[in-house]
Write a structure and sequence with these properties.
Layout (H helix, E strand, L loop, with lengths): L25 H5 L6 H18 L6 E6 L2 E7 L5 E7 L2 E7 L7 H4 L42 E6 L2 E3 L16 H6 L4 H6 L5 H8 L6 H7 L5 H11 L10
Antiparallel strand pairs: 1-2, 2-3, 3-4, 4-5, 5-6
Helix pairs in contact: 2-8
Length: 244
């Protein structure tokens, strides 16, 4: 959905002597671009509805509510993913870049500090599901966490990340946060690649009412009843259902 990542094999984690401090990369740089939870939820629901209209065999965007919280997931189809958990006053952004040099598959455990400061009530959302390979937070900790390369959580009215220090690599060789968060848009997948009308897409992003003709104008073979169900179950057009 996004342009292929460039991998700079000559990137170095060494600090240049007598040079300026390195520019922040990864979640350290990208965290300021994450919208407030209510705005992020609005975009997640819009992408879910657009995915229902698209009727793709393999979904890029998905949204579901369960056990009192909502889960949005973006899958790039190459092993990279972004997950957003919305809950009552606690919200989490979690991602995995399979080519990242700080991947637990590369270093053997989660990158140090990734979850430092993560509220205890959000920790269940970062545990590895049954049957999935689990990793420790450090070289000696219990291996109970799902593979992840970046995380951010909403606390006291702003997004924050763990007390981590990332290697001095360029944006394409960091933790994947900047790339994956930039994929939270219909621009590439649906407008540029799918040829969808940008004006109609903008109406969905604003959660405007959609008649059957509008839905079919975006995809002539759309299953209108399935789209209506996706709108209903995700809260399309409704206020943010969680405390911010």
């Amino acid at each position: 959905m996004a342009a292929a990542k460039r991998r700079n094999k000559k990137s170095s984690s060494k600090k240049p002597a007598n040079g300026p401090p390195p520019e922040p990369v990864g979640i350290v740089a990208a965290i300021s671009t994450i919208p407030r939870p209510s705005e992020l939820h609005r975009e997640a629901v819009a992408l879910h509805v657009m995915e229902a209209i698209r009727r793709a065999r393999v979904r890029t965007f998905s949204y579901a509510r369960r056990d009192g919280h909502a889960l949005f997931r973006l899958d790039r189809g190459n092993g990279d993913w972004l997950k957003i958990v919305f809950d009552a006053g606690r919200h989490l952004v979690l991602g995995f870049d399979h080519e990242s040099p700080i991947s637990p598959f590369q270093v053997g455990h989660l990158w140090p500090g990734l979850y430092e400061g993560l509220p205890d009530d959000l920790r269940p959302f970062v545990l590895a599901p049954d049957g999935e390979e689990a990793f420790a937070e450090s070289e000696s900790g219990p291996a109970v966490f799902a593979a992840a390369t970046f995380a951010a959580w909403w606390t006291e009215g702003h997004w924050t990340h763990g007390a981590l220090t990332l290697p001095e690599l360029d944006v394409f060789d960091s933790d994947g946060a900047e790339l994956l968060l930039s994929c939270m848009t219909p621009r590439i997948k649906l407008i540029e690649e799918g040829g969808w009308d940008a004006g109609l897409v903008a109406r969905i992003e604003r959660h405007e009412p959609l008649d059957d003709a509008t839905i079919r104008a975006l995809h002539r073979d759309a299953d209108v009843s399935a789209v209506r169900e996706a709108m209903r179950t995700s809260g399309y057009g409704a206020p943010f259902p969680f405390a911010e």
